[in-house]
Task: inverse folding
């Protein structure tokens, strides 16, 4: 019997199928929240659209794209990469908010998988990214971006972007479980992600970077997920230079290795930290 005033003891259930089923329910709950608070979607979409318009029309005339591709076509895959990575921060701030408001304590009283909250949160944020990418794609098409490959390759490009965003969501999940408030999560994530997305080929080629920054950028996974999506969309123009490092010649493989590595490290760490956070 549960002592008076103590938290109810949940019935622990496990297994991957149970985690997926319960995670789908939690994901639905998070998506309903977005529906009821549309400002969340509106403001997460306005920022990338502003980047597209500012870089495409204001800075684009001064930035030299690689031979064989217009700057706006070069730009859009970089904006995609930056946006889905920043979208992953929603995972961290959402979890921190749930802990702060005591919603995690309510989940503890339910006979649900321990990892369902994390699975649901990361899944719902990827689905939110899908909608944002669709809106950005329409904006890109309006300003002159075109997909110059097959439908299958284009879909593979979008899937790769979302896979990378999903892996980043698990990093943000761990941050959200460690950091005490959503505001701190957002500020801490911005300090890390902003330079990560700019010391890359998201907006300009890396050839003219200072040598140290160029080395960092060439091995930065943001660079390779951007380069991979450009290849799959047909927006690369010329091939990488022969002197370019291995990641730029094999961006798809390099990005997938990062995705697998991040998931292998941060999924168990996040689940372990969630158990600690839920038991406080």
Result:
């Amino acid at each position: 019997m549960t002592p008076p005033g103590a938290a109810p003891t949940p019935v622990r259930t496990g297994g991957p199928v149970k985690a997926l089923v319960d995670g789908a329910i939690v994901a639905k709950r998070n998506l309903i929240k977005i529906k009821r608070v549309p400002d969340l979607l509106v403001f997460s979409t306005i920022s990338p659209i502003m980047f597209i318009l500012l870089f495409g029309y204001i800075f684009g005339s001064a930035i030299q794209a690689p031979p064989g591709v217009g700057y706006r076509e070069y730009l859009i895959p970089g904006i995609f990469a930056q946006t889905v990575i920043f979208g992953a921060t929603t995972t961290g701030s959402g979890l921190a908010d749930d802990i702060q408001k005591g919603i995690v304590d309510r989940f503890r009283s339910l006979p649900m998988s321990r990892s369902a909250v994390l699975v649901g949160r990361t899944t719902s944020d990827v689905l939110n990214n899908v909608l944002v990418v669709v809106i950005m794609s329409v904006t890109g098409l309006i300003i002159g971006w075109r997909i110059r490959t097959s439908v299958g390759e284009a879909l593979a490009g979008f899937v790769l972007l979302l896979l990378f965003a999903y892996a980043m969501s698990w990093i943000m999940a761990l941050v959200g479980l460690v950091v005490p408030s959503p505001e701190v999560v957002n500020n801490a994530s911005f300090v890390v992600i902003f330079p990560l997305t700019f010391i890359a080929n998201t907006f300009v080629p890396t050839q003219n970077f200072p040598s140290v920054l160029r080395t960092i950028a060439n091995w930065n996974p943001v660079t390779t997920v951007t380069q991979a999506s450009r290849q799959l969309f047909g927006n690369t123009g010329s091939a990488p230079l022969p002197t370019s490092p291995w990641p730029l010649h094999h961006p798809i493989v390099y990005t997938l290795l990062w995705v697998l590595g991040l998931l292998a490290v941060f999924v168990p760490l996040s689940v372990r930290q969630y158990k600690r956070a839920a038991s406080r």
Notes: The chain has twelve helices and no strands. Residues 251-279 form the longest helix (29 residues). Residues 16-279 form one domain. The mean pLDDT is 84.
